[in-house]
Structures are given as structure tokens and as C-alpha cells.
Design goal:
The chain is an alpha/beta fold and 251 residues long. It is 40% helix and 14% strand. The strands form two sheets. It has a five-stranded mixed β-sheet with strand order 2-1-3-4-5, sandwiched between helices.
Length: 251
């Protein structure tokens, strides 16, 4: 007996096929929901900042982040508006690390719109390393090669321009404190491209670099919280004067 001669059989087979397809779709959907719920994307995951990456203890890293913060008062003001500061360190020289140079955001002082703290530090290091009277006396070629053994600390996550400069320089490590997300939350205008994305898209470059995020944020975040919030406390060594913070005058 053919199916053509038995319409009811055809209907039953068709209904069974539809039911089976629905069941498979429901199972597939459940599996996808389970996978998304319990296995988040790993694209933006980085190591915890408290770990001893490359055998450098967190206490040492926090010390160098504090040195970056201190560069603000040294080169600008403890309550400078654009409180972005960097230090470049040689961690291969000793367990404590060796300071090579520092830099702070210098847009206002120089009129150079791209002279962010990281760029200033890189330029200062180049000058220090190639100074014929300095401690290194490197040729330009030697100075360029030396960056691959150095670590750049910055108290706030680099903008994509600076993160790209860090990758082009070939730094061994890049360590930041306050995140771009926090800066945006505090009112700062930012290009919304995180450093991890710049690193992900620069794998063709010859020198690998380790990204370490969120170091000493309890001390770096407050440096960027007062500029657009009149109720936020001023940094240490500063006091409120209207809507801004000014250095306090020692008695």
C-alpha cells in the first residue's frame, strides 16, 4: 500500500517530523544558552593584577605605579587636571627594577595635542638613552632595540594612539591602573577602543608584549574622579577652590 493511497499515514509522519524538529531546536537552544551563560567570551580576559607576572611581585609593581603618580607633582602639579603619568622601568636590571625615565601629559604646557604621558615618557627615554653624556650612551639603533626589554607603567589605561605606540616600541610589558571604562564613568572623553583590542590586532608585530591591567586602582582612580565632580575629594596635597583643586601652600 502506497502513501498516496493513505493520506492519514502521510499526515502522521509529517506531524512526527515536525515534533522531532521542534525538540532538536529546543535542545540546541538550551545548549547554546548554557554555553553563553557559563562560558563567557575570553577575548577581554587578562590576568589578575595581584599575580607575580614575569616573576615581578605585586608589591614591586605597586611601587612603580606610585612612582608614576608621583611624577605628576614632580613634572606638573599634584592636582594637575590631566593627571596622566607614566614611568618606564627595566625589570631585568634588578629584582626591584631600574627607573629609566618618566613622563606626564604635556598637552597644555607644550601645545602638542598628542603629547600624552606615555608618548612623553617614550620620547624622554629616547633622549636619555641616546645622550652621549648620559648613563647609556646608546646609538639610535641600540636605543630602539632596548625598548623590547623595558616595561611601561601608566596610571590610566592608554588611549588607542598610545597603546599603539607601546606596541610599535615593542615594550616587554605594559601595565596600567585606572581603566578607560572608569574614565568614561567619571566624565572623561575617550576613544572607546580598549588596550586589549589594540594588542589583539597587533599580533603581526615582531615583539610580543604582556598586558597587565588594574594595578593599584585604589590610588589611581581618585586622581581622575575630581575633575568633573565638585563633591569628590582632591588628591593629596591639594584643596578645593571653587570647582577645581589647587595645590595647598605649606605653612
Amino acid at each position: 500500500m502506497s502513501y498516496a493511497s493513505c493520506p492519514s499515514s502521510i499526515a502522521r509522519v509529517f506531524a512526527l517530523a515536525l515534533a522531532l524538529a521542534g525538540t532538536l531546536q529546543a535542545v540546541s537552544g538550551h545548549q547554546q544558552h548554557h554555553r553563553h551563560a557559563f562560558s563567557p567570551s575570553l577575548e577581554n580576559v587578562v590576568a589578575l593584577p595581584t599575580l607575580s607576572i614575569n616573576s615581578v611581585p605585586i608589591a614591586v609593581r605597586e611601587g612603580w605605579m606610585r612612582r608614576a603618580n608621583a611624577a605628576l607633582a614632580e613634572l606638573a602639579s599634584p592636582c594637575t587636571f590631566s593627571a596622566f603619568a607614566s614611568v618606564i622601568v627595566n625589570h631585568t636590571a634588578s629584582d626591584a627594577g631600574e627607573l629609566v625615565c618618566i613622563g606626564v601629559n604635556s598637552n597644555t604646557n607644550t601645545g602638542d595635542p598628542v603629547l600624552h604621558g606615555e608618548i612623553a615618557a617614550i620620547q624622554n627615554c629616547t633622549a636619555v638613552m641616546t645622550d652621549p653624556s648620559g648613563p647609556y650612551k646608546f646609538t639610535p639603533k641600540q636605543a630602539q632595540a632596548a625598548f623590547t626589554g623595558l616595561s611601561l607603567y601608566t596610571n590610566a589605561e592608554s588611549c588607542p594612539m598610545c597603546a599603539s605606540a607601546i606596541r610599535w616600541a615593542g615594550f616587554r610589558e605594559y601595565i596600567y591602573g585606572t581603566s578607560i571604562a572608569t574614565l568614561i564613568e567619571q566624565g572623561w572623553g575617550q576613544i572607546r577602543i580598549p588596550s586589549i583590542e589594540v594588542f589583539e590586532r597587533s599580533f603581526d608585530l615582531p615583539n610580543p608584549s604582556r598586558l597587565i591591567a588594574g594595578v593599584l586602582t585604589n590610588e589611581t582612580d581618585p586622581l581622575f574622579s575630581w575633575q568633573f565632580n565638585p563633591s569628590a575629594p582632591c588628591p593629596a596635597g591639594c584643596a578645593r577652590e571653587g570647582a577645581t583643586c589647587r595645590p595647598t601652600v605649606a605653612a
